[in-house]
């Protein structure tokens, strides 16, 4: 099942620096929304606020109509994929993927079954017994995705998950992630500073600048009808 996310009036300051400046956005259940913007525009902070790792100074985040802004991260039913994978090098692939289930008190047999299924979803089922350091960058990224989906979260957050990969692998993984979104049908909020990636993968793109959403629209509308010079220049920069 996928969840909707309703964000209203979200603010985050670090001292006098306003990092999220009155962010409001409604994300539909099952939507693939990308947060796009230059470095420092607040993308990661917004994602971390949805995940629960950053507490906002003001505003509300509702999932399926329920306020979650004060809820601890592990109670949010949200999967997360980071840029640097954050896998445990001393554990096998299977153990890495099963780890979130262990944290949630799921028994051994069920853990193994569900880890296998998650690995199959990213086409890595034959690698369960390998060590992480025996995998390529692309394979590690797949394992990180398997770990994020293993407890069947309704929402998956991804923070520049492909930025460490070379161009060929990045394009291959873009196709994989799109396929996964279609098969799983979960809500995905995806962060990138890569315009092309945002335009090819998303249902909608939110362009951020200095902690504000400048435009939120379909890739086509962002491309054809940018609301201002900033969006036009940023999108036009994709090369
Ligand atoms: P982006 O993901 O778009 O690159 P971030 O959300 O990482 O942007 O950062 C937005 C701004 O907030 C940056 O200016 C960054 O330096 C600042 N920032 C982020 N986290 C912290 C923190 N924990 N303390 C102070 N400043 C922070």
Describe, in plain words, how this protein is organized in 3D:
It catalyses: ATP + H2O + polyamine-[polyamine-binding protein]Side 1 = ADP + phosphate + polyamineSide 2 + [polyamine-binding protein]Side 1. It is an enzyme of class 7 (translocase). This is Spermidine/putrescine import ATP-binding protein PotA. GO terms for molecular function: ABC-type polyamine transporter activity; ATP binding; ATP hydrolysis activity. The complex is composed of two ATP-binding proteins (PotA), two transmembrane proteins (PotB and PotC) and a solute-binding protein (PotD). This protein is α/β, with parallel strands linked by helices and 239 residues long. Helices cover 36% and strands 26% of the residues. It has 8 helices and 10 strands. The chain has a 6-stranded mixed beta sheet with strand order 6-7-8-3-9-10, sandwiched between helices. Strands 2-1-4-5 form a 4-stranded antiparallel beta sheet, with helices on one face. β1 and β2 form a beta hairpin. α2 crosses α3, α2 runs parallel beside α4 and α3 crosses α4. The longest helix has 18 residues. The radius of gyration is 18 Å and the shape is globular. The structure holds adenosine-5'-diphosphate. Adenosine-5'-diphosphate binds next to α1.
């Amino acid at each position: 099942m996928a969840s909707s996310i309703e964000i209203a009036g979200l603010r985050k300051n670090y001292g006098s620096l306003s990092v999220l400046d009155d962010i409001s956005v409604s994300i539909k259940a099952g939507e693939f929304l990308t947060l796009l913007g230059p470095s420092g525009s607040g993308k990661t902070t917004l994602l971390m606020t949805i995940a629960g790792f950053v507490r906002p100074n003001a505003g509300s985040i509702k999932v399926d109509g329920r306020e979650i802004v004060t809820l601890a991260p592990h109670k949010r039913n949200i999967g997360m994929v980071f840029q640097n994978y954050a896998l445990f090098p001393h554990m096998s692939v299977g153990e890495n993927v099963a780890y979130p289930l262990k944290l949630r008190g799921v028994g051994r047999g069920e853990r193994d079954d569900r880890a296998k299924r998650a690995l199959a979803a990213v086409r890595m089922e034959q690698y369960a017994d390998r060590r992480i350091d025996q995998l390529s960058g692309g394979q590690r990224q797949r394992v990180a995705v398997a770990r994020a989906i293993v407890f069947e979260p309704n929402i998956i957050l991804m923070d520049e998950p492909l930025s460490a990969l070379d161009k060929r692998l990045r394009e291959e993984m873009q196709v994989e992630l799109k396929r996964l979104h279609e098969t799983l049908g979960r809500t995905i909020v995806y962060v990138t500073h890569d315009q092309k990636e945002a335009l090819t993968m998303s249902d909608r793109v939110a362009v951020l600048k200095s902690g504000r959403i400048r435009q939120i629209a379909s890739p086509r509308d962002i491309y054809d009808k940018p609301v201002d010079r900033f969006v036009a220049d940023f999108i036009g920069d994709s090369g």
